[in-house]
Design brief:
Number of helices: 2
Mean pLDDT: 76
Shape: globular
Strand content: 35-45%
Distance between the termini: 77 Å
Helix content: 10-25%
Radius of gyration: 23 Å
Length: 187
C-alpha cells in the first residue's frame, strides 16, 4: 500500500521540477521569438504640412513580428537634425532611443511619441514626399517615404494601423540589404 503514494509522489516531484526548469525565466530555456531576430514593418507614416518656420513633426508605426529591437536615431536630408520625442501629460521631452518590443508595436502619433525635423532646409508642402531613415540597433537602417499631409490630418491609432500608407522601405545591415514596396493609396 505504501508503494503507490511514494510512486505518485515521485512522479509529481519530477513533473514539478521539469515545469520549474521550463518557467525559470532563463532566456535560453525559452523558444519565444523575443530571442530571435527582429522583423520590422513600418506603415502609417506622415508629416503634417508645417505652417511655416523651420520645424516639422513626423508620425509612423513600427510593427515587429520578431525579437526586440531599438530605434536609436532618425535622419533625413530635409532637416539638419531629426530628434526623437515623447509627450506625457502635455510635456514634450527628447528621447535618446525607443524600444521596439518583441512581437509588438512602437507607435509615433500626435500627442505621444513623435519625430521633430529641426532646422528644415526647405518647408515641405502637402503632397510632397520626404525620405526618412530610421536607424535600428539590430535591424540596421530602414528608409521610409513620409507623405506630407494636410496640417490637420490626424488618423486615429486604429485607422493608422489599418491604413495602407505609401511607404518605400529598404533595410540595410552588415549582412543583408532588402527592398520592398508597399501599396500606394491617396488619403
Amino acid at each position: 500500500m505504501r508503494r503507490v503514494p511514494l510512486a505518485l509522489g515521485a512522479t509529481v516531484l519530477a513533473a514539478g521540477l521539469a515545469l520549474t526548469a521550463c518557467g525559470s525565466g532563463d532566456p535560453s530555456a525559452s523558444a519565444s521569438s523575443s530571442a530571435g531576430k527582429p522583423t520590422l514593418k513600418v506603415d502609417g507614416a506622415f508629416i503634417p504640412a508645417p505652417a511655416g518656420g523651420d520645424m516639422a513633426a513626423g508620425f509612423f508605426i513600427v510593427h515587429n513580428s520578431g525579437g526586440a529591437d531599438t530605434l536609436t536615431s532618425v535622419s533625413s536630408s530635409i532637416a539638419q537634425q531629426v530628434t526623437l520625442h515623447t509627450t506625457k501629460d502635455g510635456v514634450m521631452k527628447e528621447q535618446a532611443s525607443f524600444p521596439v518590443p518583441a512581437d509588438g508595436e512602437l507607435d509615433f502619433e500626435r500627442g505621444a511619441n513623435h519625430l521633430m525635423f529641426e532646422n528644415l532646409k526647405h518647408t515641405p508642402k502637402e503632397g510632397d514626399k520626404v525620405s526618412v531613415r530610421l536607424h535600428f540597433a539590430k535591424s540596421g537602417t530602414v528608409t521610409v517615404t513620409f507623405p506630407v499631409k494636410a496640417a490637420t490630418y490626424n488618423p486615429t491609432a486604429k485607422s493608422a494601423h489599418a491604413s495602407k500608407s505609401s511607404a518605400h522601405m529598404s533595410m540595410s545591415s552588415a549582412h543583408m540589404s532588402m527592398s520592398s514596396h508597399a501599396s500606394h493609396t491617396s488619403n
